[in-house]
Amino acid sequence: MSSYSKCPVCEKGNFKLTSAEVDIPYYGQAYIITLICEVCAFRITDVVLSKVNPPTAYYAKIDSVEDLKIKVVKSSTAIIRIPEMGVKMEPGAVSQGFITNIEGILQRVEDVTVMVKGWLTDERKLEKCNQLLEKINKAVNGEFEFTFIIEDPLGNSLLVGAPGQIIKKRRLSERQVNRMLSKRKF
C-alpha cells in the first residue's frame, strides 16, 4: 500500500485496492486499478497499459457515426481535446482513468455542460453552452466533423480503432511532457 493509505476525503478509512485485467481489441492487455475508501466509498480509478509506451498523442478525424466507436483508453494523466467544440479535459488532483469510446466522451461533455448550464445566469455563457450542446448532438448523428486528440505524458492512454479507421500517433517531445506534468495539480 502506498503512502496514501488513509482516505484524503474522510481521513478515517483505508483504501482497498482492486485491479482487473482487460483485453483491448487490436492492442492487448491493460489493467484497471481502483482504490476505494472502506468508510466513505471515495474512489480513485486509473488505467495502466501492459506495454511500456513513450509519451504519446493520438489524433482521429471523426466524420461518421462509425468513428464514434473508436475506443478511448484514458489514464489519469491524459489531456483530451476537441478543438472544433472548444473542449479540453485536463487532469486534476483526483483525475480518473477509464475506458470508453468517443461517443462516451461526448456524453460526458454533454452531462457536464447541462449541469453547468443549470448554474448559469449570464446569457452569453448560456448561449455558448447551447452551441456546444448543438454541436454534440450533430456529432452524435454524424453531421459534425471534429478532431479528437488525446495526449498522455506517461504513455498510458491510447485510441484504438477498427481496421480501416485512421488514427494518427506521434511521440510527445520532452518539452511538451515537462509542460504537461508541471501543470498537473497532484
Q: Could you walk me through the main structural features you see in this protein, from its secondary elements to its overall organization?
A:
With 186 residues, this protein is an alpha+beta fold. The model has no long low-confidence stretch (mean pLDDT 89). It has a 5-stranded antiparallel β-sheet with strand order 7-6-9-4-11, with no helix packed on it. The protein has a 3-stranded antiparallel β-sheet with strand order 1-2-3, with no helix packed on it. The protein has a 3-stranded antiparallel β-sheet with strand order 8-5-10. The two termini are 18 Å apart.
Element layout with pairings:
Layout: E1 15-24, E2 28-37, E3 43-49, E4 56-62, E5 71-74, E6 79-82, E7 87-89, E8 98-101, H1 102-119, H2 123-140, E9 146-152, E10 158-160, E11 167-171, H3 174-183
Antiparallel strand pairs: 1-2, 2-3, 4-9, 4-11, 5-8, 5-10, 6-7, 6-9
Key terms for this structure?
186 residues; alpha+beta; Jelly Rolls; three-stranded antiparallel sheet; 11 strands; 25% helix
End-to-end C-alpha gap: 18 Å
Main sheet attributes: strand count, strand direction, barrel closure: 5 strands, antiparallel
Integer count of domains = 1
**Strand numbers in spatial order across the main sheet:** 7-6-9-4-11
The portion of residues forming beta strands comes to 25-35%
> Under CATH, the topology is which?
Jelly Rolls
Q: What's the Cα radius of gyration?
A: 18 Å
- The helix content is 10-25%
Would you tell me the overall average pLDDT?
A: 89
Uncertain residue segments:
none
User: Which structural class fits the helix and strand makeup?
Assistant: alpha+beta
DSSP helical segment count: 3
CATH class: Mainly Beta
CATH superfamily: ZPR1, A/B domain
Gross morphology = globular
CATH architecture: Sandwich
Helix and strand element order:
EEEEEEEEHHEEEH
Number of DSSP strand runs: 11
